[in-house]
């Protein structure tokens, strides 16, 4: 029996909600993770900041390794020069590794390097190589990289903190990246990260993205389980409304 790859698992469950775990109560991490598992969340997002690319310093490979969970681990590396650092995140058990071209002199090389790395916990499942883009970065930077990545993460806020407001230009950027992906003929997952709330998650899912990162909306207010369920359900509804729209448009075009 063939084991589905991490990429296939994500693609089959789109829209995937990936929960930013650093917004949780880190002293109760085990129980917070258990709540996410109960809610049906499949992916946990770890915002790695090094105090250089981002003013904040958060966690590194030992934290990712310490996350005892069946959830997929989505490592968002907001760090300077990841070339000689990604291997440690992969060895720590990351399933998705996203790097930033803004902080990387050899972004193509890092992606090439990751192509031959093995998923540490599930070698047969493979890694998903992601490229994240800050709100101020021209999208053209993606073009030469499209053959060496499986995932594009559009940041809807400037990296550094949770709880910021989604930047309105994100919608247009997502639409443009979708056109770039379609023109490439490659299967590439698309995600949005930052500023996702109960009020806008359905609209973001309706843009047709595959993965949505959310942190504070899950850990603020009600219990994480309740919030996570709400976010997943709203994302599903948003994605469903888009599919409906696409079907009606297609039917309209097919009218004689
Ligand atoms: C921004 C991070 C995001 C962010 C998500 O630097 O990459 O993952 O913390 O948190 P919320 O959902 O609170 O914007
Ligand atoms: Zn992130």
- Radius of gyration computed on alpha carbons: 17 Å
Strand order of the largest sheet: 1-2-3-4-5-6-7-8
Q: What is the approximate shape?
A: globular
**Count of distinct strands:** 8
Order of helices and strands: HEHEHEHEHEEHEHEHH
- Give me the number of helical elements: 9
Secondary-structure-derived class: alpha/beta
Outline the structure in words.
The chain is an alpha/beta fold. It contains nine helices and eight strands. It has helices at 6-12, 29-39, 61-66, 86-91, 107-115, 170-184, 201-205, 216-219, 224-254; strands spanning 16-20, 43-49, 72-78, 96-99, 128-133, 151-155, 189-193, 211-214. An eight-stranded parallel beta barrel has the order 1-2-3-4-5-6-7-8, surrounded by four helices. α2 packs parallel to α9. The protein binds D-xylitol-5-phosphate and zinc ion. D-xylitol-5-phosphate binds at residues 20, 23, 45, 47, 76, 157, 159-160, 162-164, 193-196, 213-217.
């Amino acid at each position: 029996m063939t084991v589905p790859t991490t990429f296939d698992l994500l693609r089959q469950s789109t829209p995937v909600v990936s929960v930013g775990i650093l917004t949780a109560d880190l002293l109760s991490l085990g129980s917070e993770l258990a709540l996410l598992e109960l809610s049906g969340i499949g992916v946990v997002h770890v915002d790695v900041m090094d105090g250089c690319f981002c003013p904040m310093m958060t966690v590194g490979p030992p934290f990712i390794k310490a996350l005892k969970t069946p959830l997929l681990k989505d490592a968002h590396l907001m760090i300077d020069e990841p070339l000689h650092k990604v291997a440690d995140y992969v060895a720590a058990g990351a399933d998705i590794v996203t790097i930033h071209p803004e902080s990387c002199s050899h972004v193509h090389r890092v992606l090439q390097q990751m192509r031959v790395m093995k998923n540490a916990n599930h070698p047969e499942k493979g890694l998903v190589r992601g490229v994240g883009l800050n709100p101020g970065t021209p999208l053209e930077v993606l073009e030469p990289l499209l053959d060496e990545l499986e995932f594009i993460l559009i940041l809807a806020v400037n990296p550094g903190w949770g709880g910021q407001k989604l930047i309105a230009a994100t919608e247009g950027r997502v639409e443009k990246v979708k056109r770039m992906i379609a023109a490439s003929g490659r299967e590439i997952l698309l995600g949005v990260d930052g500023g996702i709330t109960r009020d806008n998650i359905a609209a973001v899912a309706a843009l047709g993205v595959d993965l949505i990162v959310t942190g504070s909306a899950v850990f603020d207010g009600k219990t994480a389980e309740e919030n996570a369920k709400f976010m997943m359900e709203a994302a599903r509804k948003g994605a469903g409304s888009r599919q409906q729209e696409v079907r009606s448009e297609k039917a309209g075009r097919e009218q004689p």
